[in-house]
Design a protein that fits this description.
Blueprint: E1 2-6, H1 11-22, E2 26-31, H2 38-41, E3 50-54, E4 67-72, H3 79-84, H4 86-107, E5 110-116, H5 143-163, E6 167-172, E7 175-176, H6 187-196, E8 201-204, E9 210-212, E10 214-215, H7 216-228, E11 234-237, E12 242-244, H8 245-256, E13 262-265, H9 280-286, H10 294-308
Parallel strand pairs: 1-2, 1-4, 2-3, 4-5, 5-6, 6-11, 7-10, 8-13
Antiparallel strand pairs: 9-12
The protein binds nicotinamide-adenine-dinucleotide (NAD) and uridine-5'-diphosphate.
Nicotinamide-adenine-dinucleotide binds next to helix 1, strand 2, helix 4 and strand 5.
């Protein structure tokens, strides 16, 4: 029996595939490489038990081995990129989720949906607990992602309730680490790539907005624990260490030793003011909490990005 990872050639997906292979599973990675890269899985493809299928999960799926678990991580994740691939983003989290849920039913497999802290939108509650229903624009410039993920959660919950499928939902908060695409436009990659090139570091707005950043190995541990747990409701996985974007820029300047200066650029429309996970539930149900301090994670990410920028 094998595990399917949709989006397995992406940043998070490739780390998850690696972890599952190390745990002794056979892994089938399905990815159309819209935002992922063959480079992310080059080493995995040399290993026994790993298969790569280049396929768009919106389309009917090819023949696959018998599956015991299905992870749906396939979706553009960076705001500029999901805005570029807007319709594709809506479809992969809705129609793509539908295909994988049906596949899970046929295989009697456990299904996992990668949701996001974006389901809380521009949150009016801080930090965000899983009970919070969010403050999301259904027509704004981030809606193709936020609402698609909310629909994905609704569809997943519906299959659990009305079809008896075993499902898990994770709400991922901003995650960073090696194998992020330096050109994806997210803040961690932008700041580090700019610093390594000694170019200006672009802070949007006045830089007082906050995010909470977690290192990728912590997320993967949380994902694996959630999949193995008996808890079927959505669970926040994130590091509550909260930074303003100015603080983050400052930290990147220090850690890279760059000569780059900070410049200010317009704040994108609907950019959330603040975000920080309440991880009480993950701690209670999964015994999980982040282990990698943000500064250590940034050091590792800088080392990786030096090799690709
Ligand atoms: P990523 O872009 O690196 O990975 C996504 C992968 O999905 C890519 O390899 C891409 O090619 C693939 N993909 C996209 N559409 C596809 C399709 N139609 N068919 C097959 N493959 C497809 O992004 P990531 O940061 O690794 O994010 C992975 C998942 O985690 C996404 O679902 C994202 O929404 C979610 N998430 C990520 C973060 C974060 O901070 N990185 C935060 C919240 C949620
Ligand atoms: N941001 C920034 N400079 C950049 C890229 C992003 O100041 O070069 C800001 C962005 O406006 C947002 C925060 O950093 O407030 C996080 O942005 P990202 O796109 O990484 O993630 P998300 O908004 O989805 O949390």
């Amino acid at each position: 029996m094998a595990i399917l990872v949709a989006g397995g050639a992406g940043f998070i997906g490739s780390h998850l595939c690696e972890r599952l292979l190390n745990d002794g599973y056979e892994v089938v990675c399905v990815d159309n490489l819209v935002t992922g890269a063959e480079m992310n899985i080059a080493a995995l493809r040399q290993r026994r038990g790993f298969t790569f299928v280049n396929h768009d999960i919106i389309e009917p799926l090819p023949e696959l081995p018998l599956l015991e678990q299905i992870y749906h991580l396939a979706s553009p994740a960076s705001p500029p990129v999901y805005q570029e691939f807007a319709v594709e983003t809506m479809r992969v989290n809705s129609e793509g989720a539908y295909r994988l849920l049906e596949l899970a039913l046929q295989n009697r497999a456990r299904f996992f949906f990668a949701s996001t802290s974006e389901v809380y939108g521009d949150p009016l509650e801080h930090p965000q607990r899983e009970e919070y229903r969010g403050n999301v624009s259904m027509i704004g410039p981030r809606s193709m992602y936020d609402e698609a993920k909310r629909y994905g959660e609704a569809l997943t919950s519906t299959y659990a309730r009305s079809r008896g499928l075993e499902t898990r939902i994770v709400r991922i908060f901003n995650t960073f680490g090696p194998r992020m695409d330096p050109a994806d436009g997210r803040v961690v990659t932008n700041f580090i790539a700019q610093a390594l090139r000694n170019e200006p570091i672009t802070v949007y707005g006045d830089g007082s907005q906050t995010r909470s950043f977690q290192y990728v190995s912590d997320l993967v541990e949380g994902i694996v624990r959630l999949m193995a747990s008996n808890y079927s409701g959505p669970v926040n996985i994130g590091n509550p260490e909260e930074y303003t974007m100015l603080q983050l820029a400052d930290l990147v300047q220090q850690l890279t030793g760059t000569s780059s200066e900070i410049v200010f650029r317009p704040l994108p429309e609907d950019d959330p003011r603040q975000r920080k996970p309440d991880i009480t539930l993950a701690s209670r149900e999964l015994g999980w909490e982040p282990c990698v301090p943000v500064v250590d994670g940034l050091r590792r990410t800088i080392e990786y990005l030096r090799t690709v920028v």
